Amino acid sequence: MVTHAEQRLRDLQRMRLFATALLALMTAIFIATYLVPWQWTWLAYLRAFTEAGMIGACADWFAVVALFRHPLGIPIPHTAIVPHNKERIGGAIGRFISNNFLSPKVLRAKMREIDPAGWAAGWLLHPDNARRIAQRAAATLPQALRAMPRDDLNAFLARMARGGIEAVPAAPLASKILSILWAQGETQALVERGIDMAARALTDNRDRIKVTVTQKSSRFIPKWVDAIVADKIVSGLTQLLDEMRNPAHPWRTELGASVNRLIDDLATKPEFYARGEELKTEVLDNPVVVQQVNRLWTQIEVQLDTNSAVYIGQLAGGLEHALIALGQRLANDPAIRDAVNRWLRIAALRLIAPRRAEIGAFITQVVERWDTETLVNRMELQVGRDLQYIRINGTLVGGLVGLIIFTITRWV
Length: 412
What we know:
Layout: H1 4-35, H2 41-68, H3 81-84, H4 86-100, H5 104-113, H6 116-125, H7 129-147, H8 150-166, H9 170-183, H10 186-204, H11 206-216, H12 223-244, H13 250-268, H14 270-285, H15 287-306, H16 308-332, H17 334-352, H18 356-369, H19 372-411
């Protein structure tokens, strides 16, 4: 596979050969016009054209070669311009790029023209792109995690967890969670399950209740009376539980009112807020929390070592779906896409524009560190092919100008 630099070198060599061959052709025709025995009138015009073409070709060859090296190795003054002005060229390139390409005005206008979020969306939605990125990320994640210092990582995770928990007030959060559960009937379902468990417990422990009543009863009361009392207690409680299955039962209604008051108190009352923060602080300061984080991380490392293939596949699948969903969201939601583009524009302006002088200085340093031969070769590869057109044009234009001058001097 031919690289870009190799292709440029081939183009340069081909154009250089063509320009030299054109000079050789002009020279051959010029010599031939003197050697042929015929004295045709038009030969003089052809000779003038080729003579002027040779002069133009040689002059432009000298000019092109003088940019990069001494013509024929002769140290003629004001030749090899690029090698002799390497430091000045490096500074000029750095200043030119920093002033004309990295100024805030230019960057702002250019960032408005491009759509990085749209490009990213199209790239993520292209088949295999999201899968390839997800697989690479999942494959390198276990090694990256194992390479991290465990103590520092545990401390980081603990700080992150603590910071996230501290940022959220406990009482209002509990109020929201409880209100959602109550509104969706989860708490009512929990009450129903509690009633069922209590009813089963009474049925399963009927005999034990009788024994307990007999033991607690007076010895003067007959046993059959104790049995009747125990049956009445179990029957009464069972009947009460059956009645409480009705959502309209007064106790259920009172429970709902109590839950609603608790939701309001957690959300509004300062004493509940303060108590929630105290409980949260007590939990976070408990050494058990840090131990659990360390234990959790140890379990993650063990699972990654023993079942890495399974977890890598699952992680890659999850990342792939997440990347595809991100691409679809960026592609289908103009508001989000505009917001991402706006954020990228601001980030680019804040990152690049204040450092454009440093970027220009870096470019200057890179150019100055190049040796002369490297600088000459790289610049010649970039513009040498176009410079060969100067030689070709000089040959043809010089020939035409010479022909015109010869014609005018002969006929006027």
